Amino acid sequence: MSSLSLPSLPVELLYEIQSFALSSSLPLTSRHLYAVFKSAPLSIHASYLIGRYINSETASFRSGLISVVLRYPLCTQDVLEAIFRSPECPPQRFRTPTELPRRLFRALAPKKSQLRKRKREEGDERWSPDDEPLPFLHYLYDHPRIPHLYANSFDGYALTKAVHAGFLPLVRFLLEHDASPACKDGLAVMVAIRRKDLGLVRMLVERDDRQLQKKARTASVAPEGTQGVAGQTASVPNGNESEAKQEGFKSSKRRRLEDRVRVNQAMLRTAVKCDAREIVEYLVKEKGCVPDMKTVLMINSHE
C-alpha cells in the first residue's frame, strides 16, 4: 500500500490542515501547494488572516486586527471585505489607530523617464491617482469599519517613499491625512531637496491655505451686507461695502498658516551640497534660514 503525500490530498483537506497549522511556510513547500492556496476562496484567505491575528504571540493587544492583517501581501480589498463578513471576525477597537504597512510603499521608486532627467523640478507627472497604492488607501480611509489610519506609521515611511518616487498625488493625499514631513528629522524634506524639486519642497513645508481663502472670498462677496439670523440682511457699518470687503481680504491674508515643518541649517546645507540653487534661495530668502559658517564657506566655493 503506497503512502499518501501531502500534495495528493484533496484541496478541501489541505484547507482544513492549513486552518489548524496557520503556517506561512506550507504554501511554499511545492508549486502545487502554492497554486492551491493562492487560488483558494476569499473565505479561506480571510480565515487564515484572522487565525494569524488571534494566535500571534502578542495576541495583537497593542495592534488592532486591521494593522496586523494589512502586513500580509495576501490582504487585498476583497480579502478585507471577506474578513468583515466572516463570523470569526473579532470586534474592532476603534481607539487604537491602524498602522500603514510598509509593504504598500516599499516598491515605490522614480519612473524610468524621471531617472533620465537631470533637472527634476515638479516630480513625475506620469503618476496618476489610479496608481497603487492610492486606490487602496482611499478604500482604507473611507471604510466605516476600519479605525483611523495613522499616516506617520514607522517614522513617516509612507510619505518619505512617496517623495522619493515623485508620486505627487500620493504625497498630497498623505499630507491631507495629517502625514508630517517633520518625522525622522525632516527626512522627507531632505529627500525632496536631493531631488532638486522646489515645488515638492514647498508642498511639504507650507500648508495649503486655499480652503481658508475660499471661505474668506465666499463671505466677502455676499451682496448687500451679511445674512443674519432668519435670513435677515445685516447692514454694513457706514454703508461702505467695498471697504468691508477689502478689510475681509486683508484679515484673510494676515491669517498665515503655520508651516508643517520648520526648515533648519541641515536642510540648507543639503541643498548647497546638491547645488540646488533655487531651493537654497527659497530656504534663505523666503523661510529665513540662516546658514552656519560651514554652509557659508560651501556657498562661496560654489560661486
General description of the model:
- The chain is mostly helical and 303 residues long.
- It folds into 4 domains: 6-99, no CATH class; 102-205, Serine Threonine Protein Phosphatase 5, Tetratricopeptide repeat; 209-220 and 244-259, no CATH class; 263-303, no CATH class.
- Helices cover 51% and strands 3% of the residues.
- The protein is elongated.
Main sheet strand line-up = 1-2
Oligomer: single chain
Task: Report the span from N to C terminus.
Answer: 86 Å
* Average pLDDT over all residues: 82
CATH topology name of the largest domain:
Serine Threonine Protein Phosphatase 5, Tetratricopeptide repeat
Q: Give the helix level as a range of percent.
A: 40-55%
Number of strands: 4
What is the 3D form? elongated
Give unreliable regions as ranges.
Answer: 222-239, 249-254
* Second-tier CATH architecture of the largest domain: Alpha Horseshoe
Cα gyration radius (Å): 27 Å
- Strand content of the residues, in percent? under 5%
Tally of alpha and pi helices: 16
Main sheet, how many strands, which sense, barrel? 2 strands, parallel
User: What is the class of the largest domain in the CATH system?
Assistant: Mainly Alpha
- By secondary-structure content and strand pairing, the structural class works out as mainly alpha
Q: From N to C, what is the helix and strand string?
A: HHHHHEHHEHHHHHEEHHHH
Tally of discrete structural domains: 4
